[in-house]
Amino acid sequence: MTFESEAARLQNDGVVGALALVGADGAVHWQTQNWQVDGPSMIDSWTKKAPWIVIQGIKYSTIDITNSRMICTNTQQQGHIVIAKTPFWQGFVMAWCSPAHQVRSAYVDIARLASEVKPG
Question: Whole-model pTM?
Fold first, then answer.
């Protein structure tokens, strides 16, 4: 299983609508065509444990934040943002999930995908 094939499966299964792979320096190494991720801004928000983030003009309130994950939701039913740190590579996987999908369940899938990212 490659990162791209698993990302495609998660999209095809309706778990996520958009995905990105971001390095610890904020560089976006891969993202779906329907998303423009600002890596440095996300790292800054995560590091500062921001109470909310804005992505593509939509505000998401932070509901869970640790050193290994950040989960945010839009209070007007415009979706969720799920971020999981990659344990074997310095960076993280970030996803947008539909408001119809359970955000905790989506986190499990995103964390599993993040665990597949390896250096090189």
Answer: 0.91
